[in-house]
């Protein structure tokens, strides 16, 4: 944890340092998101400062790298304790995973991130032995680059959380490999990839019913994390971290930034500001105070992305529309205009009542007062009835708002 005093004396533009300096030259300004109490209003004063955003992202990356930088001193002791904390995980050798992924062949790459690459591989059931392609169990092998921002500590956090937490809406961690500088994780294979790909990169739009199923599954995953005897704050909820199996069941992945939640009479956890721009709750960005309601805000952003088909931040859009939350907020509580938010690729293939309810949930999840946001258990209860709605707009009189005008897409 970085104290305000220390942050104020640090060179550069770290987010907490900016807060301590009274937001002089801040790298993350309330006006950028228009979500903070000290920023602009959602209606008229939203200003997108590209330079400020760049400084924020660069500073966050520096802090992330510093916070999770690999420390070799005493590392062996940490590694030795992994096995004790996660006895159910399989321990792979590097050679086994090399064979399972066909020597980490480029055409087996499933994805890439700041951590490194994810490869498709095959192993024998309940074993670390590699299998022939197309046989055995299909897995995803995440390989950490030695110089990646996601360092050893974050890698250990991933093993710790997913090695001990088990739920149908959390991706299953099968095992790991730690040899010399090699750090690899082996997960269950999620056949349909990420929610991000389906919302923003596929030619065919994700059907409304699938969106609601995914939203409910992801909400249940977060509710599970928040509701245990030792609550966990996910801290990096976004579309790229929601993975889908062949039946569009949603599972949360990438727990490198997860944090143990407050316990006892504590109301929050104080920590450095890390995460993804556009998804982080404003009070967390401004103060470093992390609560389960921070995840609720991030869920509201993702649900809004699912409703609109727009990214949380999109520099390609006109200035007033680049920040999704700031742009959409005036529509969410307006029954006559909220249909203008619906992803145009859906046409009229969406539930009328479903859109109304989703907009309402977004409105409450994204409220500026964190204490007024619902719990994820409450969100689950609100989303559950939406799975069975059949009042499709295509079978109803077209909403008046869509007849009277269209918003810029």
TrEMBL record:
Q: Where is the Protein kinase domain?
A: 104-387
Q: Does the entry feature the keyword Transferase, yes or no?
A: yes
Under CDD domains, the record lists: STKc_IRAK
Kind of enzyme, top EC level? transferase
Q: Keywords of this protein's UniProt record, alphabetized?
A: ATP-binding, Kinase, Nucleotide-binding, Plant defense, Serine/threonine-protein kinase, Transferase
Q: Which domain of life is it from?
A: Eukaryota
One short Pfam name that applies is PK_Tyr_Ser-Thr
Look up keyword Amino-acid biosynthesis and say if it applies: no
Q: Which organism is it from?
A: Zea mays (Maize)
> Could you tell me the EC number(s) of this protein?
2.7.11.1
Please cite one Gene Ontology biological process associated with this protein. Answer: defense response
- Which molecular function term from Gene Ontology is one that the record holds? ATP binding
Question: Which parts of the sequence are annotated with region: Disordered?
Answer: 384-409
What protein name applies here?
A: non-specific serine/threonine protein kinase
Family affiliation: Belongs to the protein kinase superfamily.
Gene assigned in the entry? LOC109942244
Annotated positions binding ATP: 142
